[in-house]
Amino acid sequence: MQMFERIYGNEMNKNILKKVVETERFSHAYLFAGPKGTQKRDAALEFAKAILCIEKNSKPCGLCSQCLKVQKGNHPDIHEIKTGAEGDSIKISQVRQLQKSAATKPYEGDKKIFIVNSCETMGVPGQNAILKILEEPEEGTIILLIANSKSSILPTILSRCQILNFMPLRYTEFLNVVEAKGITDINEIKFLYQITQGRMGEALKALEDPGKIDIYKSISSSMDSISKGEFDKIFQIPALAKDKGINELELTDYLLVYLRQRLVEKTVYKENSDIDYLTVGKINDIIEGIMELQSNTKINLNMPLQIENLLLRIQEE
Predict the structure, then answer these.
(1) pLDDT value at 87 more than 70
(2) Which of 163, 265, 269, 286 has its CA 20 to 30 A from that of 104?
(3) In angstroms, rounded to a whole number, what is the distance separating the alpha carbons of residues 116 and 198?
(4) What are the CA-CA distances from residue 2 to residues 47, 59, 61, 169 (Å)?
(5) Taking the C-alpha atoms of 200, 19, 77 and 33 in order, what is their torsion angle to the nearest 10 degrees?
(6) How far apart are CA 251 and CA 3, in angstroms?
(7) How far, in Å, CA of 264 to CA of 269, rounded?
(8) Does a cis peptide bond (omega within 30 degrees of 0) precede residue 76?
(9) Are 49 and 60 in contact (CB under 8 A)?
(10) Contact 214, 245 (CB under 8 A)
(11) Is there a contact between 69 and 75 (Cβ–Cβ < 8 Å)?
């Protein structure tokens, strides 16, 4: 088994981490940053497995006791912090528990690894607690921070991390990966690329669960109707998402995909219909509003209402 064989694209990041494992010159902290669905957590877990692998040559071997424990999610020297649900934040209590665990020695080797997901959702107290660990790291402690965005992370944390920026795949890369998985219909591949924007993690989920593609089609159909003047359907969008079993943050992701695709159609392909209230200016305005909404998950907002208010801008003169 080769390291990162199930991580697609982002070759520079993979080569950097492979070199680190080969030379065993580990930093105390790494930040895996990039859009949702770019396999950051998968890469962090693979890196952690390689660090703990006891095979002398090809790491991770995938067969030793350490690799098997990582794969099963029960390695005592890997501690992972996650939010309770999408849209939630990392709590200060979770970070304080991490501080306590970091002060103890590893159980099975000489390394202890902490993986902090969604670290951009931490408030300032939580980030300061993380910073204290980074400023005074225990020997053998490695912290892997994972974030969809670096913008809300303290500069003092960023300066103490080796930063790896993960990007979506280009279409040609995406095409090769999906074709290798047995998908040969070029229109299906183009549609999958459109709704995932080249984020391979999201594409793999969609391939495993075709229902995600159906959800996008439903939302896309409603948005097409809204852009043609059926403004009453604006109030049906949050209800549609709830009916399909997706939360408000996921809904904003689907809306961003739709809006960006419409922007490409209007600005690149110059596609315009006789009746279309969704102008380029309104698209940019709503995209900006959605991105601001996504960055304010720490604030207790009425998300369905906020989404409706953003979409109501379509009917404005």
Answers:
(1) no
(2) 163
(3) 24
(4) 12, 8, 8, 20
(5) -40
(6) 34
(7) 7
(8) no
(9) yes
(10) no
(11) yes
Shortest CA distance to 134 belongs to which of 107, 109, 155, 110? 155
- Residue identified by tokens 């090769």 is 176
Q: In 10 A of CB 14, how many CB atoms?
A: 19
Q: What is the pLDDT of residues 304-313, one digit of tens each?
A: 899 999 999 9
What pLDDT is recorded for position 77?
96
CA–CA separation, 224 vs 258, rounded Å? 10
What would the pLDDT profile of 283-304 be if each residue is shown by its tens digit? 999 999 998 888 776 556 788 8
Do residues 295 and 152 touch, judged by C-beta distance below 8 A?
A: yes
Return the structure tokens found at 208: 């495993």
The dihedral region occupied by 215, where left means phi > 0, alpha psi between -120 and 50, and beta the remainder, is alpha
Question: Where does 140-279 have alpha helices with state H?
Answer: 155-158, 171-180, 186-196, 200-208, 211-227, 237-243, 248-267
Token pair 């002398």 is found at 56
